Amino acid sequence: MRDAFDSDRALVRRMLSGEERAFEQFFEANFGGLYRFALLRMGNDGEAAEEVAQAALCAAVKKLTTYRGEAALFTWLCTFCRHEISAFCRKRKRAPVSFGSAEEQPWIRETLDALEDESSRLPDEVLSRKELKALVREALNRLPPHYGDALEWKYIENCPVNEIAKRMKMSPKAAESLLTRARDAFREAFTATCSGEPETEME
Amino acid sequence: MRNVKHNQPSDAPEPPGDGENEALAKLLRTAGPRLDPPRERRERAYAAVRREWQRVAKARRKRRYIVWGIASAAAAMVALAFLPSLMRRLNTPPDRAVAKFERVEGGVKIASKDGTRDAKAGESLLAGESLQTLKDGHAALLASGGESLRVDAEAKVRALSETAFQLESGRVYVDSGGKTGGVEIRTDFGNTKDIGTQFSVSLDGKLTVRVREGKVELKRGDEKALAAAGEELTAAPKVAIARAQVPVNGPLWDWAADLAPAFKMDGKPAKSYLEWVCHEKAWTLKYADAKAEAAASAIVLHGALESTSLDASLDAVLAVSGLSYRIKDNTLTVSQTE
After folding, report:
1. Where are the alpha helices (DSSP H) in B6-38?
2. Contact B173/B158 with Cβ under 8 angstroms?
3. Which of A96-100, B89-93, B162-166 has the weakest average pLDDT?
4. Are B203 and B154 in contact (CB under 8 A)?
5. Between B23 and B134, whose confidence is greater?
6. What number of other Cβ atoms are within 10 A of residue A108's Cβ?
7. CA-to-CA distance for A33 and A30, rounded, in angstroms?
8. Which residue does chain B place closest to A47, by CA atoms?
9. pTM exceeds 0.80
10. pLDDT of A97 over the 60 cut
11. CA-CA distances (angstroms) from residue B209 to B178, B189, B191, B225, B243?
12. CA nearest B96: which of B50, B132, B52?
């Protein structure tokens, strides 16, 4: 989304001018997401995820002037994170966890159908699968952090839209529209994750 | 407190979905809330990335200055006399944060050169700014070095640097997390420096330093005094520093324990939570038997603690963990619920 990228560009400009609050905003908005992004790919090794997420942010900070706002800032940071994961695994002769294509599995097909067609129901045996949790988390990790926040508040904390709007410091109408975009982005990310597609740029 | 549960299957009814997005809601609830990185990891990364960013921002400011200087060589000649002070300003990062508010309760104001504003959790206290707690106000801050600084009601503290704070009135508590010399509390009656400790400093016509753990050095002019755990030093004008015994737990310290930043319990064993409570309250932790200890290690907590007193959080967490406790002689004994 153009507006989102504009605000990302503005944040980077403020960081480059040395504004402390801009740095805090940048770190708070992105470290958690990058850490989770790395954690899933490092087999839940928290120490490795910390090292990789920190290295990715340091590398990105060095290259801040090259951020042009053509993708969401978080997506741009993920490219650094992927690079750091590869370097980490190469150095330690480890294989990163990959999300190969799972699309052909019947339970995945059922899940994708239920996401597309609201009349389909998700059976409990599908919901209880460990692999499904990992795929959902990976899909959430692919979203810009504010989409993840909105979905989590709405569907896990059961927050009303007004409360989400308050937390996001926006109008209820804008929050509703953000939720719609976040749901679409999640469906897209989940489908891509299940088919083993590499991350695409999320608006 | 919200969403506190342990990792056994819950019989609680599923919260209502969104109707038209039922499948998506179910998927998200199945995966559960995203885990936040542990506080220590976040803090380590924050410090490292911030250092890198400051280096980049500083280099950029210098580079921009050089470019500007070349383009304006003639003007620069005129301005030469002012260059040293200009360079000093360029090398000083603006808005230097020295601590971050982790908890803000009631009225807490920040006074800066731009005016006064209400403090909010998550915001930074910058060098040179003062924080003032009102009658109903309390604040807990995380200093840059990882120390916890808690400010009681009706106190005024000025941030001098990452490691020094001026107490102008009221009472503060410092938990250095076991590090030495992390934070210095300065007052008009003398300065205190910790030696790996938990201590409080209060001003009411005199300076009182109480040590709960580790040691604290109090310096007033050429006069120096070292206080150990369970000791209190008092420095009043024109009187030698006095020493007395003081309890390390109980009402004198409860305000600070209740201001402790919420324990990030998601994904952690109940045992870690209990150890944290005992650290905050200066209690000894005991298990009634090996089974209770094994259970505390095995139970993984989920959810988050909202701002609440430590005693209330203990009741809530143990209730959902199938554990019970009793407190006697400053010892917390944990057993399995029958």
Report:
1. 22-31
2. no
3. B89-93
4. no
5. B134
6. 22
7. 5
8. B41
9. no
10. yes
11. 18, 11, 10, 11, 10
12. B50
